[in-house]
Amino acid sequence: MEKEYYRLDEVERRFGLRFEDLKYLVQESKITPVFYLQNQQYIVGSWFKGKGFVAHASVFYKGLVYLNHDTQLTLINEGRVRALEFGLVKPQNMQHINTAYPFRTPTPNTFMNSWEPLQKQALLEKPIGARLFPKESINLLELVGSLIEGVAEVSQKAKEYSALEKNGSITFEPKSDSEKFEIKDQNQLLKTADILILHQDLVRLGFVKKEPKTISSAPILIEAKSAENEAQKLPAPTNPKKRSNQLTELLERILIANPKISAKAAWRVLEDEVSKDIDERLYDVDAILKDVSNTEIAWQSRYGNSSITKLSTFDGAVSRVRKRLSA
After folding, report:
1. H helix or E strand, kind and range, residue 253
2. What is the pLDDT of residues 40-70, one digit of tens each?
3. pTM of the model
4. Which pLDDT score is estimated for 114?
5. Nearest to 256 by CA among 313, 218, 307, 199
6. pLDDT in the model for residue 170
7. Are 100 and 212 in contact (CB under 8 A)?
8. pLDDT at residue 208 in the model
9. Region at 38 (left for phi over 0; alpha for psi -120 to 50; beta for the rest)
10. Among 106, 61, 47, residue whose Cα is nearest residue 269
11. Buried-exposed string 42-53: b where 16+ CB fall within 10 A, e elsewhere
12. Distance, CA of 253 to CA of 257 (rounded, Å)
C-alpha cells in the first residue's frame, strides 16, 4: 500500500534503503527526514540576521515536522537529539492561531527578540520556524534580589525618616511583576526510530518505481494501429534520477514545506533566507545563496561554480519543480 510516509524498518524492507545510505543522503542534503508529533502548542516566527527570533503568533499543530540540517546531522550521528525548533510540513494545518502576546515577560528576552503579529495568510507566505510553547515561571533569583533590595531600602528610609517610621508611612517600590518572570525553552526528544521518510522523496530519488498508467483497450473501428503509433500514446516515462542543480533542490525543500506557495512568495522566501546567517537558514542548508535582488538570484554550487537565475525564468523553474514533485 502506498503511504504518505514510512518508518525506517519499512523503508529498508520495502525499498532497500539502508540506514547507512539514508545517513549519506541526509548529510548531502538530498533527503529530509520528517517526524510525526501529536497536537502541541507552538510559537511560530522568523529568524532575522542581527535580531534573532521574531515571534508572530501562538498556534496548535498536529502532524509532520522537520528539523534544520544541523539538528538532522546530530540525530543521525548520535542517535538522539533534543530539538528546539521545527519546520511545519503542512503549515496550512495550523489551528487556534492567536496573535496576542501570551507572556508577562517583556521582550527582548532569552526566547525571542520581539513580537510582531501576523495572521495565517501572511504566515503561509513566508518561511517560519515553530518552537515549542515555552514555560514562563518566576525568576527566583530576581525575586530574592528584589526582596533584598526592598529590605535594604526600607532600612535606609527608616534611618532617614524615623519620625515617619513611627506613623507606618514608609513604603518602597518593588520591581514590576514582569521583571520577576522568565521564559524557558521546551524541547522534544527525538530518536532515530522516530524518523519518517516521505513517499515523494523515495520516488524522487528512484527508490520507488512509478507504475505506468493502464490504457484501456478500445474496439478497432477501421484499421489496426501500428505498435509504433500505440507506443506514442503512452506517457513518457519519468526519470527519477534526472540530474538537478542545487537551486532546484532548494526550491524542492521550499515547495515540500509550502505546497501551495506561489513563485512570487518563493522569491520572498529566498530573499529572507539570504538575509540570515548561514546556520540560521531553514531551507538553504547548503548555503548556496549569495545574493537575491529584485531581478536575479546569485548562487554558487557545491563545486564552486557561480550562477545567476533571472526573475524572468524563475516562474518556469518553480513550475518545473512543482510538476516534478507531483509526478
Report:
1. helix 246-257
2. 999 999 988 888 999 999 999 999 999 999 9
3. 0.61
4. 96
5. 199
6. 43
7. no
8. 85
9. beta
10. 47
11. bbbbbbbeeebb
12. 6
Place of cell 533542490: 249
- The confidence band for 212, taking pLDDT boundaries of 50, 70 and 90, is very low
CA distances from 73 to 24, 64, 79, 227, 280 (A): 10, 19, 10, 51, 15
DSSP three-state, residue 324: helix
Cell numbers for 274, please give them: 539570504
- Nearest CA to 35 among 73, 62, 74, 70? 62
| CB distance 268 to 228 below 8 Å | no
Q: Which residues of 276-295 are buried (b: 16+ CB within 10 A; e: fewer)?
A: beeebbbbbbbbbbeebeee
ω into 108 cis (within 30 of 0): yes
C-alpha cell at 173: 517600590
- DSSP assignments along 70-121, one per residue: HHHHHHHHHSEEEE-EEEES-GGG-EEEE-S---SSPSS-SS-SEE----HH
pLDDT confidence of 139, banded at 50, 70, 90?
low
Length of the chain: 327
Q: Which of 314, 295, 296, 316 is nearest to 306 (CA)?
A: 296
pLDDT for 30 beyond 70: yes
Beta-bridge mates of residue 184: 135
Residue 234 pLDDT greater than 50, yes or no = no
How do the domains of the chain map onto residue ranges? 34-134+185-194, 138-179, 242-326
Amino acid at 10: E
Three-state SS string over 165-187 comes to HHCCCCCCCCCCHHHHEEEECCC
Q: Cell numbers 545567476 correspond to what residue?
A: 308
223 C-beta neighbours (distance < 10 Å), count: 6
Residue in the block written with cell 527526514 = 33
Residue 149: band (very low, low, confident or very high) from pLDDT cuts 50, 70, 90: low
Contact indicator for 22, 8 with CB cutoff of 8 Å: yes
A 10 A CB-CB count for 192 gives: 17
